Amino acid sequence: MAGRTQVTDEDFDFNKKMIDIGKEEGALEAKRALETVNLSGQLGQITGRAQAFKAIRLITEFLEMKQIAAIIDNKEFLKIPGVTSVNDYLEKLGLGRSVAYENLKIARKLEADEVRLLGQVGFTRKDLLGYASLPDEARMEIREGKVINLEKAGREEIREIVEQILQESRDLKEEATKTAQAKDRVLGQKEEMINRQSKEIVKLEAKLDRMAIEMEIPADEVAYCKEIEELDICFSAYLGRIRALVECDVPGPTSALRLVTLLNRLRMEANHWYQDAYDVHAPANAAPEEEWTQPE
Questions:
Q1: Other beta carbons less than 10 A from residue 153's beta carbon
Q2: What range defines the domain where residue 123 resides?
Q3: Cα-based torsion angle of the residue sequence 229, 234, 239, 240 in order, rounded to the nearest 10 degrees
């Protein structure tokens, strides 16, 4: 790459040794897998010799990437002259960035035994990436045989389970996103309502103060009227929200029941408060059904 300092083979000596270790481990795993095939013949009977070698190559590449992941995680690559980032390191190794990061995810999430077992049933690198993308708890349940027996199940059966769990995880994330967005909207509406109410209350208090001076209303009655007017403003805003809930499409029977229960409670308590207020404060000879007007 233009402008880069040329690095000699000696500069890579440490890095190469680490990679070689990974290759040696891969060769051992490959030998173990091949011995399994030769001894039992099961893998050859199911998918043939080609799949056996694919499984061997899969575990070998996995262990090599496992070693590269360790070098990256321990920041050992920074000892290489001219290499200042993970992308630089991957480029020096001749690895494509996108594929390399996918392989790193597989290497960090999975264990050799898992990859060897999945390789024997025909898993590809793409299949492993899907498996590695599962939530840790779900992958552990699969590994422990709580969901499916990996040693007896076929590739398609395992893939179907993996895709089902991934879809459930995506659905949960989508639902959580929608819930968070809905909460943000509600909070935004509440903040807007509070700001609007605050402005209305300030204007109303100023008006009441002027009226109190002009009409010589006692201070305690002015304070009482202010509290009533503030409540009226807040209640009007909540009535708007209640109206919106009543007029919208209710998502389900549980929410519909909650809405009706709330409105019934408000109705019962409002009637009770109205009767108490009427009995104590109503003008003489006033009927409950009459509309009261504010005295001039």
A1: 17
A2: 9-133
A3: 120
**DSSP, res 273:** H
The answer to whether residues 14 and 128 belong to one domain is: yes
Contact of 95 with 54, CB cutoff 8 Å: no
Give which of 10, 5, 12, 3 is closest to 94, Cα–Cα.
12
Provide CB contacts within 8 A for 189, sequence distance 6+.
241
- CB < 8 Å & 24+ apart, contacts of 140-147: 143/114
Residue 165 lies in a domain: no
Nearest CA among 65, 97, 92 for reference residue 81: 92
With a cut of 50, say whether residue 286 has pLDDT above it: yes
One domain, residues 108 and 15: yes
Among residues 133, 162, 196, the one where a domain terminates is 133
pLDDT tens-place string over residues 203-258: 767 776 776 666 677 778 778 877 887 787 777 777 888 888 888 887 888 888 88
Mean pLDDT value across residues 61-75: 89
Any idea which residue has 């590739």 for tokens? Answer: 155
According to DSSP H, which parts of 41-96 are helical?
Answer: 42-73, 86-92
Quote the CA–CA distance of 286 and 274 in Å, as a whole number: 14
Q: pTM here?
A: 0.45
DSSP 29-49: HHHHHHHHHHHH-HHHHHHHH
Q: Do residues 83 and 38 touch, judged by C-beta distance below 8 A?
A: no
Same domain for 191 and 274:
yes
Mean pLDDT of 14-29: 59
